[in-house]
């Protein structure tokens, strides 16, 4: 039986931990924070519970596969998935509003009713195109290790190359199918799922709206943090040693590969395999202090890549919360291009967006709001990473409070005025995210997919150091709950089963 150390208890790390333990490995999970979850965090403010990361789950089949592979099936777990009837309410700059149904078949009618006849047919035709990209890319890219061989196999099929259209951006493929600027704005929004700019992100990201609408938008009563709680409970049932408040200072190596980790208190834990659920930049620049030539090459590539943007968050405990608010709302910016220019530092250093798109998660869930009529709202705007030297210093005196006030004013201008209902307000800036998750600058997705190849060339799950693997949003296949669970499946398959797997509970 081999000993595996998993660094980081985000969802990718938890998924890898449970899979490897179910395959018979002895696993130690170490997490620098006092709670599991990583970017899938939870804050409790006077009994109001807030998910501080993802607010919806897509591709529920991936979660079901994880639970089925590690013990009792999802239906018998503590996770009760609920499909949202309204996936999201979108408000466009011209004031038009559409409640996008969670049922894919109902979407065309909703778009026609809100935006005008023919819009639904346009969107459906685009999703048909996106479905073809999904069929080509799901297995070889999302569910398999990414390597040169995979790229070569795709290149050999002219039909597949034409389908994926690697020479075209997400904005470009939208322009070919969507004549209504509001539909193009709706598509642009999905580039933000990878922290990217739709003008530069590859057309392959068209699979994101397809997957969300084909397989549904889902919520877990009690909040998505319940997923982290269930996964760590399953890990412990499988015999995993979970060590919270334990920070790794170094991955130890020998001439043959990894040999363990050194903690910040200088304790050494020996291991045969190390799985790092940490930002790839941290792994290659901090945890491997004396890398070889191959590792240095990967580190240079990671360092040269464009960081994804971060987020500025308001956690709002509301009295008398608006009763007509759907679970998710997007209030689009008047000038979406100006927003991407600001967060990526075009036309000046990276800077807060003056009139940003506002994302609101307002679950109608009595488990997260302690009193009848109250609400626990999570409000997010895209923001540049914390960078006091060359960009935005989110710790500058007064910046967080003044920008929070400004965001509330923007919301009111767009028809969601809740300033006089706020009982408690907590602000989470990119600097706070950096401190909470040890992610440079608080970049949510590691690197942005801001080139034709970037979506396919994230840091590989297998590092150049034998026995060291990467899992999670900054490595292949990318960020978001289903993708980090896929990365865990890839890594577990690479490591393989121990000789005598235990009977899973």
TrEMBL record:
Keyword Oxidoreductase: yes
The keyword Transferase is assigned to this record: no
Pfam families for the chain: Amino_oxidase
Amine oxidase domain boundaries: 12-493
Keywords, ordered alphabetically: Carotenoid biosynthesis, Oxidoreductase
Pathway(s) where this gene product acts: Carotenoid biosynthesis
Coiled-coil region(s): none
Family the UniProt entry places it in: Belongs to the carotenoid/retinoid oxidoreductase family.
Identification of the protein by name: Phytoene desaturase
């Amino acid at each position: 039986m081999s000993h595996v150390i998993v660094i980081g208890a985000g969802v990718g790390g938890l998924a890898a931990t449970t899979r490897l333990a179910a395959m018979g490995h002895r696993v130690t999970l170490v997490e620098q924070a006092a709670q599991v979850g990583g970017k899938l965090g939870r804050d409790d403010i006077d009994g109001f519970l807030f998910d501080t990361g993802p607010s919806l789950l897509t591709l529920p089949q991936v979660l079901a596969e994880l639970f089925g592979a590690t013990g009792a099936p999802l239906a018998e777990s503590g996770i009760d998935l609920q499909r949202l009837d309204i996936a999201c309410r979108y408000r466009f700059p011209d004031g038009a509003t559409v409640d996008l149904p969670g049922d894919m078949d109902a979407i065309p009618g909703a778009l026609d009713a809100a935006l005008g006849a023919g819009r639904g047919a346009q969107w459906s035709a685009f999703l048909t195109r996106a479905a073809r990209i999904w069929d080509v890319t799901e297995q070889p890219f999302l569910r398999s290790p990414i390597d040169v061989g995979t790229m070569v196999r795709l290149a050999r099929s002219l039909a597949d190359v034409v389908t994926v259209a690697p020479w075209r951006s997400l904005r470009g493929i939208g322009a070919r199918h969507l004549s209504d600027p509001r539909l193009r704005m709706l598509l642009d929004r999905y580039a933000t799922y990878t922290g990217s700019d739709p003008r530069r992100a590859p057309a392959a990201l068209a699979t994101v709206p397809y997957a969300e609408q084909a397989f549904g938008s889902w919520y877990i009563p009690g909040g998505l943090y319940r997923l982290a709680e269930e996964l760590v409970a399953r890990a412990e049932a499988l015999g995993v040693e979970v060590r919270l408040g334990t920070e790794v200072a170094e991955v130890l190596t020998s001439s043959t590969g990894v040999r363990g980790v050194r903690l910040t208190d200088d304790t050494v834990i020996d291991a045969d395999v190390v799985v790092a659920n940490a930002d790839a930049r941290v792994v290659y620049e901090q945890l491997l202090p004396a890398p070889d030539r191959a590792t240095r090459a990967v580190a240079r590539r990671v360092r040269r890549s464009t960081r994804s943007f971060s987020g500025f968050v308001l956690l709002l405990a509301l009295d008398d919360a608006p009763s007509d608010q759907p679970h998710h709302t997007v209030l689009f910016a008047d000038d979406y291009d100006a927003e991407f220019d600001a967060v990526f530092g075009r036309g000046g250093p990276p800077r807060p967006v003056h009139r940003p798109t506002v994302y609101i998660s307002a679950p109608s869930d009595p488990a997260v709001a302690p009193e009848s009529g109250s609400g626990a709202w999570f409000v997010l705007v895209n923001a540049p990473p914390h960078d006091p030297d060359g960009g935005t210093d989110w710790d500058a005196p007064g910046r967080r409070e003044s920008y929070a006030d400004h965001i509330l004013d923007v919301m009111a201008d767009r028809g969601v005025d809740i300033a006089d209902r706020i009982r408690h307000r907590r602000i989470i800036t990119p600097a706070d995210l950096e401190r909470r998750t040890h992610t440079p600058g608080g970049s949510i997705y590691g690197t942005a997919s801001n080139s034709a190849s970037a979506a396919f060339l994230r840091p590989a799950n297998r590092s150049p150091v034998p026995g060291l693997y990467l899992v999670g949003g900054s490595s292949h296949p990318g960020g978001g709950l289903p993708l980090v669970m896929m990365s865990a499946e890839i890594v577990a398959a690479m490591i393989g089963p121990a000789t005598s797997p235990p009977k899973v509970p």
